[in-house]
Amino acid sequence: MDTAAALDLALGLADRADAITTARFRAHDLHVTTKPDLTPVSEADQAVERVIREVLSDRPDHAVIGEEYGADAGAADATHRWIIDPIDGTKNYVRGVPIWATLIALEVGGRLDVGVVSAPALGMRWWAGRGLGAFRDGERLSVSEVGDLADAQLSFAWDTTGAFAGIGDRLLALAHRCWRARGIGDFWQHLLVAEGAFDIAVDPVVSHWDVAALVPILEEAGARWSTVDGRADADGGSFVCSNGLLHDAALDALAAPTGTEA
After folding, report:
1. Strands 40-42 and 239-242: what pairing?
2. pLDDT at 261
3. For a Cys-Cys bond, which of 21, 27, 83, 224 suits 212, CB 3.0-4.6 Å?
4. Where are the beta strands (DSSP E) in 89-162?
5. Helix (H, G, I), strand (E, B) or coil at 72
6. Residue-wise pLDDT tens for the chain (262 aa)?
7. What does the domain layout of the chain look like in residue ranges?
8. First CA to last CA distance, the chain
9. How far is residue 193's CA from residue 120's CA, in Å, rounded to a whole number?
10. DSSP-derived 3-state class of residue 29
11. CA-based angle 118:29:12, to the nearest 5?
């Protein structure tokens, strides 16, 4: 399967996901439970992942890694791995906040080649295939050319449970060095970097499925991404993206002081 065909397949999967998520968004009888990690999961999260897995089940060389049902047997050795977050922003979804999306990525031979992010409540969809460009609703994307933190627009996720202990103060210090800061969080802040609307976005705590679909879109738009400590690892537990010009300055600002833990 070439990249264009894989992207077409991913866009079709997003259509199926949107039909499920929009039908249940703000439904009074939406069923929500709590997972062992104390995060919510809705019936829509589970239904979307089941449908995607069903569509992909007839491709023996393709494996699925999903937030709700884990990794297929043999996923570690599969040449094609689909990495799925059926609803990124479930907490928003269950409270009626329209900032949520289905994230669909395809990794081929260890490289993330296709990414689709569909946010039907916002009326927007982003997609990219390696070498094919990055788009939002058909409009090609490109990062900003802001080269100074004092002129930069920053977005970052925040957590009140203590998960951001240590880095929280450094995030605020970085915000004070930027022209403007907002806390949009989740997928959207990173895609706004791809669009050139934001210049830096920081998510100190993420899972693989939270960012896999973002990587091809960001790269095709000219962005740079890494973990907070500078590793190019989409499964590294944190995520920073920028227009590239500001990346080193952002990482320096977020770095733990020498001799301390992050």
Report:
1. unpaired
2. 55
3. 83
4. 101-108, 111-119, 124-129, 133-136, 139-140, 153-156
5. coil
6. 899 999 999 999 999 999 999 999 998 888 988 876 667 788 999 999 999 999 999 888 899 999 999 999 888 888 899 999 999 999 999 999 999 999 999 999 999 999 999 999 999 999 999 999 999 999 999 999 999 999 999 999 887 666 677 788 899 999 999 999 999 889 999 999 999 999 999 999 999 999 999 999 999 999 999 999 999 999 999 999 999 999 999 999 999 886 555 4
7. 3-140, 149-254
8. 41
9. 20
10. coil
11. 25
Q: Using only C-alpha atoms, what is the Rg of the chain?
A: 18
Task: Give the closest residue to 209 by CA, choosing from 79, 45, 96, 54.
Answer: 45
For residues 46 and 150, the answer to whether their CB atoms sit within 8 Å is: no
Burial (0-12, 13-18, 19+ Cβ within 10 Å), 124? middle
For residue 136, give the amino acid letter: R
**pTM of the predicted protein model:** 0.94
Domain 3-140 has CATH 3.90.1170.20: no
Beta strands in the chain (DSSP E): 32-34, 40-42, 62-66, 70-71, 80-88, 101-108, 111-119, 124-129, 133-136, 139-140, 153-156, 180-182, 200-203, 224-226, 239-242
Contact assessment for residue 204 and residue 174, using Cβ atoms and an 8 Å cutoff: no
Question: How far is it, in rounded angstroms, from Cα 87 to Cα 66?
Answer: 11
Note the residue count of the chain.
262
Indicate the DSSP class of residue 111: E
Three-state DSSP state, 60: coil
Specify the fold of 149-254: D-Maltodextrin-Binding Protein; domain 2 (3.40.190)
